[in-house]
Amino acid sequence: MNEPVMTDMRSEYSKSLIQLGKENPNVVVLGADTTDSLKTSGFGKEFPNRFFNVGIAEANLVTTSAGLAVSGKIPFASTYAIFLPGRAVDQIRNNVAYPSPPGKKGLNVKFVVSHGGLSVGPDGGSHQQIEDIGIMRVIPNFRVFIPADTIAVSKLTSLMANEYGPFYMRMARSKTPLVHSDSQNFETGKAITLRDGSDCTIAACGITVRMALEAAESLQQEGISCRVLDMFSIKPIDNATLEKAARETGCIVTAEEHNIVGGMGSAVAESVSESYPVPIKRIGAQDMFGESARDKEIPLLLEKHGITSFNMVKQVKEVRSKKL
User: Fold this and answer.
1) Hey, which residues are catalytic here?
2) Is the pLDDT score of 250 beyond 70?
3) Which overall architecture, per CATH, does domain 192-321 show?
4) Whole-angstrom Cα distance, residue 266 to residue 268?
């Protein structure tokens, strides 16, 4: 594959928020003492009366967002993934997901976090949030997104603003390569088929999507045709596309920057087991924490947990041997 163009999700999120702020006066932005890092402070410079930094108080971040939503605003609340949901799951559940106005499910709050997964690197295992998919997807009424690149960040930020209800979107800390085109459409609950194939399917999300495409390219050189799905919508999951992939390719490998327990791979396995069971192999952290790694060492940390295109190639070959 060609050398990828590297882009920054946080910068794109900041630009998207400012554009939304110009289009809709009800959009407000909240932070928890990480507004410069997440670059949401740019919205505050444009719209100071619609920007709130609550300090190191994530529970307050959630409850203040809930109050603003009740008053008719569209709050986007952001901090690091380890702090949200890490420190405020009780408030998320009881103050945002549980209250439901007549005919609606949950409050209209959008949680967008950064520094998710093992690629946080230097912050160490205590701050590498690899449990958030599992936490957020089991809370009723929430929808969960993990974008693969900045195009997805922009499109999904706009989508969340225009769809009622609570959302959770997790961005990566490091710069990420583009995998989508500007013309790509994103729909809640709809996976994107980036590459067709007939021998196996790789379902990926976030930074592993590019790896999946690289793995499929390598497998093609060996005569193995591999389908690649961007499962950016973890909840709702795209049951129809997964069933089609299971029927047509006969086996699935999932890849994520998350614990395999309760993660995207679990969601895929649950879906396929009820529609068209096929052999599945899940790539991700194997029920263990990460560890500190300087920026240049992050690839080694991902390799330690098997989150590489090389391991995807290996697992595709292994799972194909189990096809009926």
Assistant:
1) 58
2) yes
3) 3-Layer(aba) Sandwich (3.40)
4) 5
